[in-house]
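Throughout this review, each integer encodes one residue's backbone shape. One record appears below.

===
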Amino acid sequence: MTAKPRARLLVKTPGKHVDPRWALLREVVAGHAARPGGLLPALHNVQDRLGFVPPELISEIALEFNLSRAEVHGVITFYPHFRSAPAGRHTLEVCRAESCQALGAERLAEHARSRLGCDFHATTGDGAFSLEPVYCLGLCAQSPAVMLDGQPHARVTPDKLDRLLDVARELEPYNAEDVQ
């Protein structure tokens, strides 16, 4: 006798509030749970839609993929791209590749950590900025480089970084052409 794969729909427990994110989870799971290797695309989809992978949904994700919570948590924590908390309103990525390192990126990274008051893979206390390392922005000839809200900036000095952060904090939404 062979075991049948578990097919389970997320259901409402009587008398309990249902998290509205479960509808999204159902949609994501429907497209990926039956596929080999479907967990990574599903997690990317959840994060793309919600901005992070909520820890309270890990148990449901694990059930739908017939995995343990530890396995799903292990995937989420192994890849630094996945977040378990919402990102800041702005994301600053500091290049950590060799070319940028050779031209002052470590000093720039230390300045960013000091200025924002948080380390890499963290968000400022006011929720304004998330600080992330990135390993090559393709601006090696113009190092050191950062990316702020998806916009690359080259030959960044601590002073230029301060101006970028000030403009980003003042403007909603951020416009890269306002800082040169």
About this structure: Helices lie at 21-32, 39-50, 58-65, 69-78, 98-102, 105-116, 158-170. The two ends are 69 Å apart (CA to CA). The chain has two domains: 1-84, 90-178. The CA atoms of residues 109 and 153 lie 14 Å apart.
